[in-house]
Amino acid sequence: MRTYLAALTAAISILLYVSFPAESRTINVRGRVISQGSHEPLEGVTVRNARTERLIGSTNMEGRYTVSVDENDELLFSIVGCESLVEPVKGRLAIDVALFPKPQELEEIIVVAKGLEDAFIIDDAELNVKGNYIHLKKHVKIPHKLFSSNVRMIIQPTIYDVTLRKLSYLKPVVFDGYRYAITQRRMHDFNDSIDPLTPFRSIKQTSRKTDDIVTIADSLYVENPNHDFMCLVMSSLENYNNIIHADTFMIARGTVNPLRFLSYELKGAGMTDERFIPQPEVELRDARGNMNLAFEVGKSKLNLSLGNNRAEIDAMLAEFQAIENNPDMALKSFSISGTASPEGRYESNIKLAGARMNSAMDIIMQSVPENLRRNASISTDASVASWSDVSELLRTDGHDDEADAVERIIKKYPKNPDMQSARMKRLPFYKHLLADKYLPRLRKVNYQIVTSQYRPLTDAEIEELYARGDKSLSKYHFWRLYNNSSDTARREKIMRHALENHPDFLAAATDLSALLIDRGQSDASILEPFFTDSNKWTGLPESSRYDMGASALAEGRFSRADSLMSTLPDNELFHKGKVYSAALNGRYIDVMQEISEDSPLNEVLLLLAIKDNDTAWEKAQKLDESAIEEYVKAVAANRVDNYVYATVHLKNALRLDPSLRDVARVDGDLTDIIEDIDSENEELQ
User: Fold this and answer.
1) CA dihedral 309, 312, 313, 316 (to 10 degrees)
2) Can you tell me the distance from the alpha carbon of 647 to that of 676, in angstroms, rounded to the nearest whole number?
3) CA 637 to chain centre
4) Each residue of 29-50: b (16+ CB within 10 Å) or e?
5) Strand partners, 58
6) Pair type for strands 173-176 and 201-203
7) 448-486: buried (b, 16+ CB within 10 Å) or exposed (e) per residue?
8) Which of 103, 253, 298, 500 has minimal CB crowding within 10 Å?
9) What pLDDT digit, counting tens, does each position of 356-393 carry?
């Protein structure tokens, strides 16, 4: 029995194993990276999937990271200055590691021994760009043979913007000998605050025969990090009485800024916030209505059963009723004109036209409320139609021969309407055509109502005003104009006109900015007037903040762009803007994985930004051969001291796009190579 159960258990185990194979899963791994020995957190450590070699994360300023990875993968931790470390995941959710520092040689000051005339020469440094800030960090050795106890050394670093010819001072480094410090305090009655250099001062505490290390470390905000910059250092060595030695020298030319080529594309966001979209505006406008009343031959009394008279009267009365019931309407004027047909004697006809007009007016005025008539202008007019009117009607209907006959009589008796009428009756078609069909159409009473009404303008009326260059167009009118237009050039023109007439028109500024962003012609100055007070940014529409941020990003104002984008929700519309503004503002860690996955080029650029140079060069060699990619290959090769490859790739880049020469001349990564290439070209010439 036991044998049977054992066999059955084994069979079930095999069946389960075959039917349900073990599957690995993706887990979120968190941890902290510190420096071995000092236990200090390491910021900027890259975390890669050792199997796929994909960058999946980086540590923050506290040395912490979070990555998504397969539970059976391995993590590769690396940073400049430390030994890389591979750690298997093995399904663990928390992995803390310590990296061993690599031994590094200290960058020294080089002193040429010439007594008190020694010149201080500091090794070349790097001006690193992070967002809109240029960072300088340099260690300087103070040789004990040069530095006695009764001297002070002042090192004043400066950043010179060659493009703008502007010099900016960084924090000075002040290093006092022990005796010099005591004398300085006594001179100031032991009040150190009198010395303006006190905040930057350190005092030699080591023995007389010990070299000391001082650090130059500061940053400078610049509007455009793509300008040409150099770092100049002014140094002086002084005792109690004199400046023993002073010198100025350059330690850096160009900025290290690999993200200048970061590839991204943002779309503009039009105004959607109803609070800022102009609403329809009512205006006092005139409207006109007309009516025709027909009369029988020779009769002046209005017959409501004749033709459309009843319908015309009812329509007119309805219009008066509508005016009375609408608090935004008023009767401005009412005019009525009576017309008689031209047959018969003219004097009789004009009297008949007046009688018809009066008959119609009596009926109409009985129906017009007194309150409407009070402020209205009422006028009347009587007239007799001419035989020329008859001729025009005939031609309109295609009776050209008959019209010619009528016009011959008019021409023969131009100033005698009575004779014209007598001759017309002799025409063979007079009775069956003129008397029965056309003359009745001329026996009528017309009226015209002009009303004043507060209402929005129609799109046609707005277009007419805009075509005339009317300066009275409101924000709403411009809003209707450019939203009704499908032509982007016309839309832009209308929006610019709108802002000329209404500089505070935020919706137009936002929509114009969005249009230019889509076109690749961002212009931050359009929205700039609305963003002068950063305390009020969050009260502005999200689309306005986004478009302002995207425009600032395109103009190289990364700090401003990141500040604006950080106020926006992380949704589909704003996500890319938030990600790339963070990266370009130096917050690589927060967005490193996502940007690296966008393109191989972006991955290499971020690796260069965090100075993972070995991996950057390895990845760069797999890039395509466009001008930008060849340029980036040159940067990556030069970072790992592969001068030959760097030169070859830079020459390829310049061949494909000669304009990159100007970039290379201000790029701290390639200034040395471009100088060599230019010198080589000069020799060949």
Assistant:
1) -170
2) 9
3) 36
4) bebbbbbeeeeebbbbbbbbbb
5) 46
6) parallel
7) ebebbbebbbeeeebbebbeeeeeebbbbbbbbbbeebe
8) 103
9) 778 777 777 777 777 777 667 777 787 888 999 989 99
Which tokens go with 456? 């929005």
Q: Are 530 and 506 in contact (CB under 8 A)?
A: yes
SS3 (DSSP) at 57 = strand
**Spatial separation of the C-alpha atoms in residues 446 and 293, rounded to whole Å:** 7
Q: How far apart are the first and last CA of the chain?
A: 100
Q: What is the token pair recorded at 211?
A: 């070299």
Is 228:162 a contact under the CB 8 Å cutoff? yes
Residues of the chain falling short of pLDDT 50: 1-22, 104-119, 284
CA distance 514 to 523: 10
CB-based burial of residue 98 (10 Å sphere; 0-12 exposed, 13-18 middle, 19+ buried)? middle
For position 684, what pLDDT does the model report?
65
Alpha-helical (H) ranges within 71-157 are: none
Quick one: three-class SS letters along 190-226? CCHHHCCCHHHEEECCCCCCCCEEEEEEEEEECCCCC
Structure tokens at 5: 């159960």
User: Measuring CA to CA, which residue among 135, 168, 169, 159 is closest to residue 229?
Assistant: 159
In the chain, what's the furthest Cα-to-Cα distance?
Answer: 141
How many of the other CB atoms lie within 10 Å of CB of 548? 26
For residue 255, report the phi and psi dihedrals to the nearest 5 degrees.
-115, 150
Give which of 262, 252, 206, 247 is closest to 229, Cα–Cα.
Answer: 252
The length of the chain is 685
Give burial (CB, 10 Å; 0-12/13-18/19+) of 14: exposed
60: number of Cβ within 10 Å: 17
pLDDT, one tens digit per residue, over 406-462 is 999 999 999 898 899 899 899 999 898 988 888 888 877 677 777 665 667 788 888
Asked if residues 577 and 565 have their Cβ atoms less than 8 Å apart, the reply is: yes
Supply the pLDDT for residue 117: 38
The full 3-state SS of 456-516, as one line of letters, equals CCCHHHHHHHHHCCCCCCCHHHHHHHHHCCCCHHHHHHHHHHHHHHCCCCHHHHHHHHHHH
How many Å apart are CA 215 and CA 568, to the nearest integer?
39
Residue range 603-627, pLDDT digits in tens: 999 999 989 999 999 999 999 999 9
Q: DSSP letters of 546-611?
A: HHHHHHHHHTT-HHHHHHHHTTS--STTTHHHHHHHHHHTT-HHHHHHHHHHH-HHHHHHHHHHTT
On the 0-12 / 13-18 / 19+ scale of CB atoms within 10 A, 487 is exposed
Cβ atoms 653, 627 nearer than 8 A: yes
Q: How far is CA 145 from the centre of its chain?
A: 59
Tell me which residue has tokens 């004779």: 419
- Helix 558-565 to helix 542-554 angle, to the nearest 10 degrees? 160
Are the C-beta atoms of 268 and 513 separated by less than 8 Å? yes
